[in-house]
Write a structure and sequence with these properties.
Blueprint (H helix, E strand, L loop, with lengths): L4 H25 L2 H6 L3 E8 L10 E4 L2 E11 L4 E8 L8 E7 L6 E7 L12 E2 L4 E2 L4 H14 L2 H15 L3 H20 L1 H20 L1 H20 L1 H24 L4 H17 L1 H21 L84 H5 L54 E2 L4 E3 L5 E3 L24
Parallel strand pairs: 1-7, 2-6, 5-8
Antiparallel strand pairs: 1-4, 2-3, 3-4, 5-6, 9-10, 10-11
Length: 487
């Protein structure tokens, strides 16, 4: 037989095509390297309580994608062991559940791998999925038998009614049911994608549910109170309607009032803020004042107890006067010297001197024990100072002297301190101006005891009849406290 060149070329092309088809069939469809040598795959052992219809070459899926096959099945003393051949290019977490599912009610079985977490190390050759991580579907025969028994237990007429009513209920709702099913499928897919987050949410919902259970009594009380409020609102419907009807005009009047008070209301509110801060600072003192107020009222009521139910009751409190003059003596330390003090009879309002004037004797002195030098510092417990600035500074109170200077300058031992006392951090006081000219001498004159006549500083002659020997009556201590009525 003579083969021409053309025939040889055709035979070569046919051979190449045959080899290509054979390779595709062997490697792509039959998967001979995997089947014969296990190339590109690794083996994992799955322990099952029973085969549940699983067979060799059954699919193994991961997230719905085929990742291997069941290589072999064999019995053991505890159940069934399935040898899984898994692809090496797919990393499957070792912390997973293996579930045997069926494509349909009577379809073929497959193994679905569902990871519990995505952070565990991947499976490797020789790993074993224990039996407590595996599950199989219920026996389809037992399920069908139970279904048949359930259907036989339902009366035929009632079953026909259920089917007819179901048709009436869902008849014509095909598109809506389709959307519902698609939405449920999408929800299930999203839930599977966020499986770790959902699992953590379910695990962590336990304390929340426990707290709801523990507070069930409070929730029931709240619901009961809400029901009471709702019932009262329903009962007082006319009043509530009146409030709603008149609420708009009242709000308009209130807004108009605010607009009229706009120039002064912000200032008042700002001042109230400052007062509120002071009240918060002195909260303990206010509480103590409220505690002592009833006792003080009780003491005041006790003062009128002696005259209670008597004719003298209208006179008021019962008081007892005891003469204890200058006990303790008046505190003059820390105040202006007498030559700088203002005469009390003047009616002008000169500016007060810069600084603080108060009794500046030791804090344990008996003079003016309730003076400002012993005021407790609210922000610094245990410290007493005359001013807030001294309380909040590191400066400590320093007295001028003991305070018992009955003659001379009461501020004799100044120790460099200013009088009045300047707040902490203030610049030192300026030097006192040089003394001015001496005041004119005080004019005085003698009076005639016989007639009560005397010459005043203006050179005029005055007569005070009650000072003379011929006065109608001798002067008393009461008349000496009032100005003379005669001239």
């Amino acid at each position: 037989m003579i083969l021409t060149r053309r025939i040889k070329i055709q035979l070569t092309i046919l051979l190449i095509l045959s080899l290509t088809v054979a390779g595709i069939v062997a490697f792509g469809y039959m998967r001979l390297p995997e089947t014969l040598f296990g190339i590109g795959h690794y083996k994992v052992t799955l322990e099952l309580p029973e085969a549940a219809g699983l067979y060799k070459s059954s699919q193994v899926t991961y997230h719905g994608t085929e990742v291997g096959r069941v290589k072999d099945l064999h019995l053991t003393a505890a159940g069934v062991v399935a040898e899984l051949s898994l692809r090496s290019d797919v990393g499957i977490p070792s912390d997973l559940d293996a579930q045997v599912h069926s494509v349909s009610a009577v379809g073929e079985q497959y193994v679905a791998l569902s990871p519990r977490t995505g952070t565990s190390p991947p499976l490797k050759n020789g790993d074993v999925i224990p039996r407590d991580r595996a599950s199989v579907p219920p026996d389809i025969n037992a399920l069908l038998d139970a279904t048949n028994r359930g259907l036989r237990a339902i009366p035929r007429d009632n079953l026909k009614t259920v089917i007819d009513e179901s048709y009436t209920a869902v008849g014509g709702l095909g598109p809506e049911l389709s959307r519902f099913i698609k939405g449920s499928t999408a929800l299930a897919i999203d839930a599977r994608t966020n499986l770790d987050a959902l699992t953590a949410l379910i695990d962590q919902s336990g304390p929340l549910l426990d707290s709801q259970t523990q507070s069930s009594d409070s929730i029931q009380a709240w619901a009961a109170n809400l029901a009471t409020v709702t019932h009262e609102l329903q009962t007082q419907d006319a009043s509530v309607s009146g409030v709603l009807d008149k609420g708009g005009p009242a709000a308009s009047e209130l807004r108009a009032l605010f607009e009229r008070l706009q120039p002064t209301l912000p200032i008042v509110l700002a001042n109230l803020v400052s007062i509120g801060q002071v009240a918060v600072t002195y909260q303990n003192d206010l509480e103590q004042l409220l505690v002592l107020l009833p006792a003080g009222v009780n003491g005041l009521q006790g003062q009128i107890l002696a005259n209670l139910n008597t004719i003298q009751a209208y006179k008021g409190a019962y008081l007892s006067f005891n003469t204890n003059l200058n006990v303790p003596p008046v505190c003059s330390t820390g105040y202006l010297p007498p030559q700088q003090q203002r005469v009390a009879s003047f009616e002008d309002a000169p500016p007060r001197p810069a600084g603080d004037l108060y009794c500046r004797v030791p804090q344990d002195s008996q003079l003016n024990v309730r003076g400002m030098r012993n005021i407790p510092c609210e922000t610094v417990p245990g410290k007493r100072a005359p001013t807030v600035k001294m309380c909040e500074s590191k400066e400590q109170y320093v007295p001028l002297n003991e305070g018992y200077n009955w003659k001379g300058d009461p501020n004799a031992t100044l120790s460099g301190q200013d009088v009045p006392q300047l707040p902490p951090g203030s610049p030192p006081a300026r030097a006192a101006p040089p003394p001015g000219p001496a005041p004119p001498p005080v004019a005085f004159g003698e009076y005639d005891p016989a007639t009560g006549t005397y010459v005043g500083p203006d050179g005029r002659v005055y007569t005070q009849a009650d000072l003379g020997q011929t006065a109608d009556r001798e002067p008393t201590w009461q008349t000496m406290l009032f100005p003379p009525t005669g001239s």
